[in-house]
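Design request, tokens follow.
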């Protein structure tokens, strides 16, 4: 009688874990992070039909890496649970923590009871009224759940990606800054010889949970909107040089105006000097001449005074 092959429970769990990790490592990475206006999802996914980022409920989003059929089944189950709870009770009773617990129970049961575990890793995100109320939950293939503050990176090289992200991430950053940071982190791994890659809009799947949007907060960013956000911002140095050029032009204009004013002042002074000389000559003639000539000299004095008054006005 042949002896049955025996494997310890520890060895079985170890083999299943290794199998699941290898399957997840073959998938492209996904980054989820918070920003000032909500929660940002960025996945390296050139497909426009098979989504790795999706909506679960009004203010809850879902992201996954691994085998698509397996995490798509999990996503559909989460949508059904959220719809049933929202219909039975209230839409406000549907929250990210309940969905994360639901997924943890499903993944844990599959990992321990079935011969093949799911090769998936999930993130459940909920946007709150303020950045402090945002929730990010990361779930692994064995049902383990973790509450991640601010940043979640999933995939084969998640540790390398999340290390740089956590150092540079800030919850009050703008959407375009957060998007460029996430894309840079995704492109920092996976190149030939660990060289960084440049990811374009056609290679990315991007979505957000908009904090300021009423009702359904989930929104995808595609085409022109995504391209504009990925565009590099204008360099401040160029703006400073333009401002200095404008200041130089203003200074040149002020110099020209000042020179014109100085010339006008010199002309007025010359006319005043010319008017003073005839006045002195007329006074001498009035001393030697009869009184009638003095009156004529007085008329001559009126002319320069009126001319000076006109120049002053």
């Amino acid at each position: 009688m042949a002896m049955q092959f025996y494997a310890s429970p520890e060895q079985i769990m170890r083999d299943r874990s290794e199998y699941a990790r290898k399957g997840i490592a073959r998938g492209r990475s996904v980054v989820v992070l918070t920003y000032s206006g909500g929660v940002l999802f960025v996945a390296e996914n050139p497909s426009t039909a098979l989504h790795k980022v999706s909506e679960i409920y009004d203010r809850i989003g879902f992201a996954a890496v691994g085998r698509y059929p397996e995490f798509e089944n999990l996503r559909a189950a989460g949508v059904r649970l959220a719809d049933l709870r929202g219909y039975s009770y209230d839409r406000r009773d549907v929250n990210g923590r309940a969905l994360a617990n639901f997924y943890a129970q499903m993944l844990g049961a599959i990992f321990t009871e079935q011969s093949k575990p799911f090769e998936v890793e999930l993130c459940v995100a909920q946007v709150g009224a303020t950045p402090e109320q945002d929730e990010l939950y990361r779930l692994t293939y064995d049902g383990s759940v973790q509450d991640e503050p601010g940043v979640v990176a999933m995939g084969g090289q998640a540790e390398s990606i999340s290390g740089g992200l956590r150092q540079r991430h800030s919850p009050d950053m703008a959407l375009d800054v957060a998007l460029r940071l996430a894309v840079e982190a995704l492109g920092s791994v996976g190149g030939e010889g660990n060289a960084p890659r440049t990811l374009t809009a056609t290679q990315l799947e991007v979505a957000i949970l908009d904090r300021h949007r009423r009702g359904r907060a989930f929104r995808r960013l595609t085409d022109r909107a995504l391209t504009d956000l990925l565009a590099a911002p204008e360099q401040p140095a160029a703006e400073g040089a333009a401002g200095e050029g404008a200041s130089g032009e203003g200074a040149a204009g002020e110099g020209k105006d000042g020179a014109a004013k100085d010339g006008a002042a010199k002309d007025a002074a010359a006319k005043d000097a010319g008017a003073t000389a005839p006045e002195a000559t007329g006074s001498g003639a009035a001393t030697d001449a009869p009184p009638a000539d003095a009156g004529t000299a007085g008329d001559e004095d009126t002319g320069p005074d009126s001319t000076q008054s006109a120049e002053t006005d």
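Comment from the thread starter after seeing the answer: thanks! Residues 237-253, 273-313 have pLDDT under 50 and may be disordered.
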